[in-house]
Amino acid sequence: MMRLAMILFSLISTTLMGTGIVIALVAGFTTLMPLLIAIAAGFALSIPATWVVTKAVLAA
């Protein structure tokens, strides 16, 4: 299970962090701090998202 979670985490975290950056840029935040906050938020959200997706994949 841990191996699958690590693989999924690498995909989910980059997706959510990239989405956060795009949202921040579209909202007009172009300085460093808002972008770092968006990256940190995407990283923080990717941990529970990975857990949920891993459980769902293993249950199927």
Automatic annotation (TrEMBL):
Domain of life (superkingdom): Bacteria
Record key words, sorted: Membrane, Transmembrane, Transmembrane helix
Residue ranges crossing the lipid bilayer per the database entry: 34-54
UniProt protein name: CTP synthetase
Species per Swiss-Prot/TrEMBL record: Actibacterium atlanticum
